[in-house]
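[stage:ingest] chain + small molecule (pyridoxal-5'-phosphate)
[stage:ingest] validated
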Amino acid sequence: MNKGIQQNEKYEMSLQDIWKAKKRISPVVGKTPLLFSQGLSKLTGSNVYLKLENLHNVGAFKVRGAANKILSLTPEELANGVTTFSTGNFAMCVSYLAKKLGTKAVVCVSKRVPKTKLDKIKQFDAELEICGVSQDEAEQRCYELQNERGLTVIHPFDDPYIIAGQGTIALEVLEDLPEVDMVIGGLSGGGLHSGIGLAFKSTNPNIKIIGVSTAQGAVMYESLKAGRPVSLEERDSLADSLLGGIGLENIYTFEMVRKYVDEIVLINEEEIASGMGFMADQQKMIVEGAAASGIASLLHQKINDLGKNIVLIVSGCSVDTSLILDVTQNYIQTEK
Ligand SMILES: *Cc1c(COP(=O)(O)O)cnc(C)c1O
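[stage:predict] done
[stage:export] tokens:
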């Protein structure tokens, strides 16, 4: 990836981009632990490991891609500031990094985004622009800001730097568990699976890559079925970080997920809740719905042909404490 890749100019990614990302982000993003799960291993008869991306200090793996992108900007671009239209973990990560690197972040959100999310973004002193009633309008506003104020738009997933940054998870897993043969994680826009898919399949094409999406908004799944990017109406989900579209003009992640992901499974709200409850009660860890999706896929036997050495990507922990308490209480009463 050379400086100045144009938005619509397709770049052919390779494993080398992911190694470059690893080097670039190492000053700001720490390696996360890989933890053997006694409980899930016993349950499945496989060796199950948890890649603890919930332990980043911003609470989500997306800090990797965001850091790779922001650290690739020219000094002038960095000084001018950045803007993004993702409302959840990605905006939090961009805001966190902008603050850390001493620049400005403007987050564009639609009127429908709830206050709790906005409060989190404000925590890192990002400027909020409330514009329109949909994510599309927020995205459009970002590009206006690029023209008006010289801010650089940071796309939440469909960008080679973001994809390469997310792919660094795979390099760390391969370092700690070179015998890995199956990797499972929450799939939404596909930045995560594009990056780890490229890294794992370049290393060994037999490593199986599984995506888990919420039945409340499985946009990538439906797009692959249709053979082109489609959009769906959004419904609420406990795995709120897995909601959102893939963009009808998708450039990278649709093709990469099609190429690298072996299977996509869908899980419902009850299953997501049990995954969160299991993590709290059995693993003593608070994780968000999206991060519990892989656990749920094992608890509910969604995957037919399990690997011997399975890694679950525990992708984040942005969840209200009251919600996790409710879900855990319910898990203790019903599942045990
Ligand atoms: C964004 C996100 C995902 C999905 O990542 P994509 O690159 O959008 O597919 C999974 N888990 C969490 C916690 C996330 O924030």
